[in-house]
Structure formats: C-alpha cells, structure tokens
Specification:
It is built from 14 helices and 24 strands.
Length: 492
C-alpha cells in the first residue's frame, strides 16, 4: 500500500538545520510535528486555512506564524528562508498550488509520518497505539504514565492531553509514544501512516471497519493491520485487545511476543473480578505476567478501563513496576474532547466528545448515562467524515442513539460528495428512532440546531456533543447561549 512515487529523502546530516515548509500546518498531527521540528533546531514555516485554538495557540507558543491560504508564492525563496524540504499533510490534494510548485521546483517532499519517523523516531523505541477506537486517549495515557514514571518519553498525541504540558515532547528517554493512524499518509503515499513508525511496542485496540472512503471493505482495512504486524521486530511486543475477534485472529501472525489484554477471561492481562463502577468510573484488580495492581483510571467509561488495561499491559511488559503504572493511570484525566465536561449553566450540563463511529457513539452515550444517572440525556451528533456519513452504519447509529432520550442532528457534512445510494438517510434514522420513543430533530443548519437545543434544554439535562470536527463550535456556543438565557430570565 506504500507509494514509491516520492520516497522519503535521505538527509545527509540530520543535525544540519533545514528550512522546512509545511503544507496544512494546522492539523492535529502536523502542528505538533512543526513544534518538534522547531525544537530540533530547524527553521519551520507553513500554510493553512484559518486556524483556531488549540492548534493556533500551539504554533504561536512555538514562534510559528502560519501563512494564510495556499499560494505558490509561499515557496519563493526569502532572505531568511529557502525551503529545502516540504512536508505535506494528508488532507492536501495533488492540485494544491503549493504542492504543484514544490514539485515544479524539484523540492524533496515528505508526508507527516515519514518526517516524524526520520526526525523523531529513528533510533528510539517507538510505542505505537493503533486501532479503530481509543487511539488518542490510549496514547495520552501511555505518554502521561511514562512521564510520571520518570522515563522522559517523547510523544505526539493527536489531541490535547489534560495532564501534559503540550501534545508533543521530544523527551530524552528511549521511548517515543505516538498514535498510529490507519488513514493515508499523503496524496503520494496512500498507505496508512502507521506503516512508517516501525513500533517496538504496539498496542492494538481494535480493527473494526472504518474509513470506508479509503478502504473499500473490512478485509482491506485488516490487510493494513496485517502489514503492521508483519513489520514488528522479533524483540518487540504486540499488546492486543483479545476481546475483539478480528484482533485475536490476526495478532498471532506477528513475529514477536503477543500479549492479549481485555476484560474477558481468555486474556493474559485481565481483571481478576468484574470491574466495579462508581459514578461512571470503573476500577478493578488487574493481573498479568508482571504481577497485579489495583487499577482505577482517572477518565470515566468502561471503554477507558479497557484502554488503561492495554497501557498497563504494555508498560509492565517493558519492565515498569505494575503498581507504579496503575497509580499513574489513576491520575490521568485523558484528552480534551473525550467525555469532557465543559460546564453547567442553568442546570444544563454540556459534555464534548470526539465520537463519530457507531461503536464510539454507543460507548460515549453509555458512559455519559452512567456518569449522570437519572438525568435526561440529549445527544447532538455531527457525522462529519466521508466514512461516518455512510449508509452502511445505519443500524449501528440506530442502536447507539436509541440509548439517548433525545437526539439532534445537523445535515450530513459531506452529503454532496457521497453517492445517494451510499449516503446515510437521516430522515429514515430519525423515523426509526421516533418509533423507539426517542424524539429526534434534524436541523437545517448549525444555527437552527443551537436554537433547538436552547429552546428545549431543561434544568437537569445533559447535552453531549459528538463530532470528529468543530461542529460549528456547538458546545461553546451552547454554553454561551444558556448563559444568555439565564441572564434574560433574571432580568425579567
């Protein structure tokens, strides 16, 4: 699946400062990479559309001021900057004017994962977290735990960790923790990003079908994971979620040690008794080859207990003390936009989450339900990606959203880019949810969706906003609108 059209350029002297231009510098992986390259002593600039926090803030703190928009003139030599390497984000198309100009000038091109490996991972011991679900949270858990253990890890998290200084660090220790995305690397490298990272330790959370815009079938996605497993070194370790049938079937193909973890009894690393729940947080006595420990992750949800067990299994397999690892995981609050409570106004609590796949939506709704027992749960879901908005996920969304008390949906974000026969039928979904007693509203736009929520939200409600994108700023706008509603009521 790797393209050789633009192989990664071999830099003769990695210590020599380069002038690096980054196309689409504001992405959740690209902005931290830009900051890492800046810390390594390279001169870095880049371009993107309008940027907003947290990525705009991240770049500003690193002294990087992105150029607005894409223009071939951005690659013209300047007195203090003559680009000798261009890093291209995976959202950049072949006809991007800067990509066209870079090729015309014969400048070396790299994808984000190529650059991350060559500048940050080579010579380290990469700990890579891969899988359909839980990558960002699990990556943050692993990075934070190693940080707390004094291991001084390098890391790049595709989100904003709540317990680390930033979403990236060079670190001085041997480990470098990174999220292994299965999506393509660049227009000239259509294979998955994780094939570039060469993990020594791999945490594989799941292999459920996703990214239908890139992988035409579940088998195509699993073929990418097979490639990842085939590249594991003999002295490495695969820590695989044995509760997922596709993972249990494929993981043994790795030519290294495989440790299965999960909540089920068949796993080598597992709870000794059923987990205990307290207000949406789960705890257990976990056991594995390295010993036992009491584990109570600082982030709620049964799925996050599973993620924490995976991190505990990986770090103890690498020689870290079981009880120290568990203690650090108990202090880890995870990542922004993962079950993140933003505030309560007028008795209405707003929670923000990244969920955009039926399995993740179901896990989020269940976790919110457990954390806010007895309260009406309103689910607002934006199906933003080309994959998320496909009809093949209809039954999954029906099952997931039926767990809410009320549902509000905007139009499909990429409706025009999907053939009618592949497009999720929102009206049919709303009708089926209504048959199950779940009042569902399809709003014509973001403003109307916000107005609906403000008009119908009642004291005691919990509104969970779910999207893999910005959702038009819905959670923050909702809090502000609720504040205004309270102020208007007080003034009457």
């Amino acid at each position: 699946m790797r393209s050789t059209e633009h192989p990664a350029p071999l830099l003769a002297d990695a210590a020599t400062p380069l002038d690096i231009h980054i196309i689409a510098i504001g992405g959740t992986g690209m902005a931290p990479l830009a900051c890492l390259l800046r810390e390594l002593g390279h001169r870095v600039r880049g371009s993107d559309g309008p940027l907003y926090p947290p990525m705009s803030t991240l770049l500003e703190r690193a002294g990087i001021a992105p150029l607005l928009g894409y223009d071939a003139a951005h690659l013209e030599p300047a007195p203090d900057f003559v680009a000798n390497l261009v890093i291209v984000g995976n959202a950049v198309r072949r006809d991007n004017p800067e990509a066209v100009e870079a090729e015309r000038r014969g400048l070396p091109l790299m994808s984000m994962p190529q650059a991350l490996y060559q500048f940050c991972l080579a010579g380290r011991q990469p700990l890579v977290v891969a899988g359909t679900h839980g990558k960002t949270t699990t990556t943050a858990m692993a990075a934070y735990t190693l940080h707390e253990l004094g291991a001084d890890p390098g890391y790049l998290v595709g989100g904003l960790p709540l317990d680390l200084p930033a979403s990236y660090a060079l670190g001085g220790g041997p480990a470098f923790v990174v999220e292994g995305d299965e999506y393509n690397a660049a227009y000239f490298d259509r294979g998955p990003k994780f094939l570039h990272y060469r993990p020594r330790t791999l945490i594989w959370t799941s292999g459920e079908y996703d990214h239908a815009d890139l992988y035409p079938s579940p088998e195509a996605l699993l073929a990418a994971y097979r490639q990842l497993l085939a590249g594991m070194p003999g002295d490495g370790v695969v820590v695989a979620c044995g509760d997922r049938p596709e993972v249990r079937e494929l993981a043994p193909a790795a030519a290294c040690r495989v440790v299965f973890y999960g909540l089920g009894e068949r796993n080598e690393v597992r709870p000794l008794a059923p987990p205990v729940e307290t207000n949406g947080r789960f705890a257990c006595r976990v056991a594995g080859p390295a010993g036992e420990a009491d584990l109570s992750p600082g982030v709620g949800g049964r799925h996050n207990l599973e993620n924490a067990i995976g991190v505990w299994a990986a770090l103890t397999a690498n020689g870290h003390d079981p009880r120290a690892v568990a203690a650090a995981l108990g202090r880890c609050r995870g990542v922004a936009r993962r079950l993140q409570e933003l505030g309560t106004v007028g008795g209405v609590t707003v929670v923000d989450d990244f969920a955009h796949h039926p399995t993740a939506v179901a896990a989020t709704v269940d976790a919110v339900r457990r954390s806010y027992r007895g309260r009406r749960l309103v689910a607002a879901l934006e199906l933003r990606s080309l994959s998320a908005a496909r009809s093949l996920f209809f039954d999954g969304y029906l099952d997931a959203l039926a767990r809410a008390d009320r549902v509000v949906l905007p139009p499909l974000f990429h409706a025009a880019r999907l053939p009618a026969e592949e497009r999720l039928d929102l009206a049919a979904l709303a009708a089926r949810l209504g048959e199950q007693g779940v009042e569902t509203t399809i709003a014509p736009g973001y403003d109307e969706l916000l107005a609906t929520l403000v008009a119908t939200a009642m004291p005691g409600d919990v509104v969970v906003s779910m999207s893999s994108g910005s959702f038009g700023g819905l959670p923050q706008r909702l809090l502000a609108a609720l504040q205004a509603r309270v102020a208007d009521a007080a003034g009457k």
